[in-house]
Design brief:
Distance between the termini: 32 Å
Order of helices and strands: EEHHHEHEHEEEE
Number of strands: 8
Mean pLDDT: 89
Largest sheet: 4 strands, antiparallel
Number of domains: 1
Strand order of the largest sheet: 7-6-5-8
Shape: globular
CATH architecture: Roll
CATH class: Alpha Beta
Structural class: alpha+beta
Strand content: 15-25%
Helix content: 10-25%
Low-confidence stretches: none
Amino acid sequence: MPLDDFYQNRVHHFEIPEPHDTLTIESRLRVTTGSPSRLGLDARPAPRSQLKDALHIEHCYDFLQASRYVDTAPETWRLAIDATQGEDDLWQCALRLMNFVHRHLTYKSNLTQVHTHMREVLLHRAGVCQDYAHVMIGLCRTLGIPALYVSGYLATQTASASHAWTEVFVPGTGWQALDPTHNRQPDETYVKIGVGRDYGDVAPVKGTYKGTTKRKMDVEVRVEQRG
């Protein structure tokens, strides 16, 4: 049964009350991508003084608060202040924060898992794409920059898992995508699936399981480029 969640993501809900030994969820999607509208890296579209206006925009409020895997603690604020010192433009601040996260963290698989909080990521200074996104989101929100979590895929032949990046709200321009894992602006190779406050809002599969503790989950992603 398809429906839209609070953040306008398409969700499919099902129940299997009968006893079963295995469950396979297979999703196939054909998409056509294009070059997104992007601000230039040297653009200076909005001073930080305009950030107060974001509080009056309904769809920005949730993306200014702490959430399940993102905090806005004083320690996070201090990192954000140091990384953006002397910069007054909102977009340039976001670019500095992206660059800071990319340099501050080391990409390391199997160190974290899907429920790892950004505090732990900052402690170890390492993680995977969703950790990079969570840290950048926390830094942005401490400065009052609305930031959301994007879940999707990189449409490359080497893609073997989902990918995560961020979007920040720039007054007068709208939401702009940034990928701190690769320190770049997403392009036509990115496939956006859903958005939320953090990973907890856009997990590919979530629900309630009743059964034994002897269970195993395998995930496989295949991406094919055509045309």
